[in-house]
Design brief:
The protein is of the alpha/beta class. The chain folds into three domains: 106 residues, Helix Hairpins; 116 residues, Rossmann fold (3-Layer(aba) Sandwich), CATH 3.40.50; 61 residues, Alpha-Beta Plaits (2-Layer Sandwich), CATH 3.30.70.1450. The chain contains ten helices and ten strands. It has a six-stranded parallel sheet with strand order 3-2-1-4-5-6, with helices on both faces. Strand 1, helix 4 and strand 2 form a beta-alpha-beta unit. Helix 1 runs antiparallel to helix 2. The N terminus is likely disordered.
C-alpha cells in the first residue's frame, strides 16, 4: 500500500512539471536552434537554411557530418548548441515518457478513473459483503463507483474503481459524491465509517446515504451525522440467529425476501387514495405485496395492529422485477 501514496506524489509532481516545463523547454530549444543557426550562418558564410539544418541535426545528435564548423567561432557555437539543446530535448522526452507511464499506472491502480455520466451509487470501503452488493446493484443496471484501498480481485469491469482510503476527505472528494444519487459506507472499521460519514456530509450534505456497521451504537451515531439509513451487521446476524432457533426456517424466509430474482423490494410514498385508511386496505389494493410501512425512522409491519396511513408514511413492498 506504500506504493499508492508514492505513485500519487510522483504523478502530481510529473503533472506539474509537464504543465510548467515542457512548453518552456521547447521554447528554449527553438531559441537556441534559431540563434545558433544565425550565428553559424554568419561565421561559416552559408545560408540560414543550411545553418538551421546543421543546428537541428546537431541538437538531435544525428550529426551527418555534411556540414561542419571550419573555424573557432563555429566550434564555439556548435558547443553551445550541443550543451544547451541536447539536455533540454532529453528533459522534454523524459517528462513526456514519465507522464505516459504514470498515467498507465494510475489507470492500473484505479487512480485515474472516469466517473459515470449518469447518477450513480458510490460505495466507500471494501467490507466483505461489498462484492455481493455490487453484483446485486449491477443486476439492476445502476452505475456503481467503488472507493477502496485495494481492488477486489473479482471486481466486475462495469464498476468504476477509485483507489484510496475511504476515510480520506480528498479521496472521497475525487469520487464526486455530489453527483451521485446515493452512497453506501461499508468501511472495515466503525471508526473509518464515522470519519467517512463526517466528510461525506460536508461534501454532499443532501446525498442519500447508507452505512453498514458492526455496532448498533455506531449506527445511532451515524444517524446523527446525517446518514439516512444504517444497518448493524452484528445486530442483524444475532436477531436472525435468535429467530432461527425459534423457527428453523426464519433464516430462509429472510434470505428469500432479499435474494429474490423475480421481484424486488421497493419503498414508495403512500398515495392520496390511501391516506387516512388502514394498512390492511393498502395490502388489498396495492399491486405488490405490502410488508409494512416506514414511519419516523422505523418500520411497522402492522402485526397485531392496523395503523392508519399518513402522507408522511412510505409503503415497504415487494414488486415484480
Amino acid at each position: 500500500m506504500v506504493a499508492v501514496p508514492l505513485l500519487l506524489i510522483a504523478s502530481r509532481l510529473v503533472k506539474t512539471l509537464s504543465r510548467r516545463s515542457i512548453a518552456a523547454l521547447l521554447g528554449f530549444v527553438v531559441a537556441v536552434l534559431v540563434l545558433g543557426a544565425a550565428g553559424f550562418s554568419l561565421t561559416q558564410h552559408i545560408s540560414f537554411g543550411t545553418a538551421l539544418y546543421w543546428a537541428i541535426t546537431t541538437a538531435t545528435t544525428v550529426g551527418y557530418g555534411d556540414v561542419t564548423p571550419h573555424n573557432t567561432a563555429g566550434r564555439v557555437i556548435a558547443n553551445v548548441v550541443m550543451l544547451a539543446a541536447i539536455p533540454a530535448l532529453g528533459a522534454v522526452f523524459a517528462i513526456w515518457t514519465s507522464s505516459a507511464i504514470l498515467t498507465h499506472l494510475r489507470r492500473l491502480f484505479g487512480m485515474d478513473s472516469r466517473l459515470p455520466t449518469t447518477p450513480f451509487t458510490v460505495i466507500f470501503g471494501a467490507n466483505a459483503i461489498v462484492t455481493r452488493a455490487l453484483n446485486e446493484l449491477l443486476a439492476t443496471g445502476v452505475p456503481v463507483v467503488l472507493v477502496a484501498p485495494t481492488k477486489p480481485g473479482d471486481l466486475d469491469d462495469r464498476v468504476t474503481y477509485i483507489a484510496g482510503d475511504p476515510a480520506d476527505e480528498q479521496v472521497i472528494a475525487s469520487a464526486h459524491p455530489e453527483r451521485a444519487d446515493r452512497a453506501l459506507i461499508a468501511c472495515d472499521s466503525d471508526a473509518d465509517a464515522l470519519v467517512c460519514a463526517v466528510a461525506l456530509h460536508h461534501l454532499a450534505p443532501s446525498l442519500e446515504s447508507y452505512a453498514l456497521t458492526r455496532s448498533s451504537h455506531v449506527s445511532r451515531a451515524l444517524a446523527e451525522l446525517g446518514v439516512h439509513h444504517t444497518l448493524s451487521a452484528d445486530e442483524l446476524v444475532s436477531h436472525t440467529l435468535a429467530k432461527s432457533l425459534e423457527t428453523p426456517q426464519a433464516g430462509d424466509v429472510l434470505l428469500s425476501l432479499v435474494d429474490g430474482t423475480n421481484y424486488r423490494m421497493v419503498q414508495q410514498p403512500v398515495g392520496s387514495a390511501l391516506v387516512g385508511r388502514a394498512l390492511s386496505a393498502a395490502r388489498v389494493e396495492s399491486d405488490g405485496f405490502v410488508l409494512g410501512i416506514y414511519r419516523e425512522g422505523r418500520v411497522d409491519l402492522g402485526i397485531g395492529t392496523d395503523p392508519i396511513l399518513s402522507p408522511a408514511d412510505s409503503l415497504i413492498m415487494l414488486a415484480a422485477a
